[in-house]
Amino acid sequence: MNQELKFKWHSLYGQILFDRKLKTAWKKVEVNKGSGGIDGETIDSYRNHEDDNLESLLLKLRKKEYKPSPVKRRYIPKKNGDKRPLGIPTIEDRIVQQAMVNVLEPKFESGIFHKWSCGYRPGRGAKRVMQIIMANIEQGYNYIYDADIKGFFDNIPHKNLMRVLNKYIADGTVLDMIWSWLKTGYMEEGKYHQVESGAPQGGVISPLLANVYLNELDWTLAKYKIRFVRYADDFLLFAKSGEEVKQAAEVTIKKLKELGLEISSEKTKFVNFNDDDFDFLGFTFEHWRKRKKDGKPYYIAKPKNETWKDFRQKIKCRTKKTYTYSKEKWINIVNSVIRGKVNYFLSVYEAIKENEKYGFNSQCFFKAFGNELLAIDGYIRRRLRVAMIHQNPSQRKGWLMSTKWNNEYFARIGLIPSYWYYYHKIYGFSLQSYIQRMKEKQRSKLAKRIQRLKEKGQTYYTPDRVRKMTYAQQI
Predict the structure, then answer these.
(1) In this structure, are strands 71-77 and 143-148 parallel, antiparallel, or unpaired?
(2) Whose CA is closest to 286, among 296, 78, 297, 294?
(3) Half-sphere exposure of 37 (CA within 13 A, CB side)
(4) 440 vs 53, 332, 367, 431, CA distance in Å?
(5) Considering only Cβ atoms within 10 Å of each terminal Cβ, which end of the chain, N or C, has fewer?
């Protein structure tokens, strides 16, 4: 709902004035890690005097002497080549913001936020988004408005946001605190800058405030019976005809204008899913088509092409040959990346299984990227072969080790093959079955290569090749 509450929330500030509440907030901040703010305090340095720091902060809050510091401005690259500004609060500000989120979030989750809003909410995320997308397109809502709000986090009007918060919150101290966080400004290259709008990305409370503000849009769409799914400032509208989806877009644009926001024309488009594809949350949804053998309709959901580049980049950053870790540590470092990525890829499968509980039998084909997973596995092994050679590592030595440190070797020492991990989660086949399959595939590939050379009157096991294989065994 987005109506003003008859009984607004009072006495919220007092709920954070307990050492256990600040301790809980600090532990959440500690787990999330991140760099320090403008005061130079880091997670590690704060931890070294944890009890004294929290006691001092609690005293300031009780005396109402707490004042937030300007955030530290940093930039991170975006996929289109631009840079996204981040505002990094001090550790102390993060703790207070987290404590306030811990108080406010359950209240907004209890009947205020719409069920089709999925970004930065507990118990929701990519799987829930995939459920909503597939349920809609499989019920015939194949005309889609794929929208993005222009510079959303930087352009939220502060006064408008406070008006929305006033519909629910009656605690003036909390409202003043939120206002101070919005107005705190930022430091960049030693200079202080004021802000007139926006909630800095990087702030602990910013995602909650963003959802509170766009909750106004969510319930306007619901009022007009428009189907949608929203993840932060990215959202999709669904309709059964081109005319209906255009009307839905008009409703959206009008409401956003009232909120002081606008659609990003560069990132927004109309999609007819009968003919067009669309991307959302790192997945590509390829339009309806028919199977050749029986004519049954289906569509494909798979990770975007850019996702594979990001996967490789994350592996590359963690497997620099200048590091001299043990094999066990190398495997643990790489496995954490593989699990994170592949578990995200499994969001579509998990959404399909969840929708089946509600009677939706999906026509989505979600296993169309096995070759990409195999290619990633090959890339990971190549990186590890070089990284694990501590004495003068090189690509040449890594290539020489390909016979000795092969697919089976890495699986035996604990490396999780992304191909196996994905299909194991779906079908449950064992790692031993995967190893056997890969060995048979390699034998078949080698036999074909030997046969081709034989037909040309050449031999595979040349003296030079045998010498290199012997040398690899000695490294």
Answers:
(1) unpaired
(2) 297
(3) 22
(4) 60, 27, 22, 14
(5) C
Q: Residues 328-362, buried b or exposed e (16+ Cβ, 10 A)?
A: eebbebbbebbeebbebbbbbbbbbebbeeeebeb
User: How does strand 269-272 pair with strand 143-148?
Assistant: antiparallel
The confidence score (pLDDT) of residue 28 equals 96
**Structure token digits, residue 441:** 């595939």
Q: Which amino acid, 450? A: I
**How far, in Å, are 110, 135, 196, 223, 259 from residue 218 at the CA level?**
15, 18, 25, 9, 12
Please name the residues in contact with 117: beta carbons below 8 A apart, sequence gap of 6 or more. Answer: 124, 211, 214, 215, 218, 230
d(CA 191, CA 20): 36
Radius of gyration of the chain (CA): 27
| Token pair belonging to 232 | 């932060």
How do residues 143-169 score in pLDDT, each as one tens digit?
A: 999 999 999 999 999 999 999 999 999
Hey, what long-range contacts does 165-170 have (CB within 8 A, 24 or more apart)?
A: 165/209, 165/212, 167/2, 167/3, 167/4, 167/5, 167/8, 168/4, 168/5, 168/8, 168/9, 168/107, 168/108, 168/112, 169/8, 169/9, 169/12, 169/104, 170/8, 170/9, 170/10
192 in helix, strand or coil? strand
Tally the residues of the chain: 475
Distance CA 164, CA 251 (A): 19
Mean pLDDT of the region 221-227: 97
Residue 368, token pair as written in the block: 């169309």
pLDDT digits (tens, 9 = 90+) for 258-275: 999 999 998 999 999 999
Question: Distance between CA atoms of 210 and 194, rounded to whole angstroms?
Answer: 20
The torsion angles phi and psi of 462, rounded to 5 degrees, stand at -70, 160
For tokens 């631009």, the residue is 82
Contact between 414 and 408 under an 8 Å Cβ cutoff? The reply is no
State the Cα angle at 262 between 260 and 264, rounded to 5°.
155
pLDDT attached to residue 79: 66
pLDDT, tens digit, 9 for 90 and up, residues 406-463: 888 899 999 999 999 999 999 998 999 998 988 888 888 888 888 888 888 888 888 8
Least confident of 27-41, 193-207, 436-450: 436-450
* Rounded Cα–Cα distance for residues 297 and 46 (Å): 57
114-144 pLDDT per residue, tens: 999 999 999 999 999 999 999 999 999 999 9
Residues 6+ away with beta carbon under 8 Å from 462: none
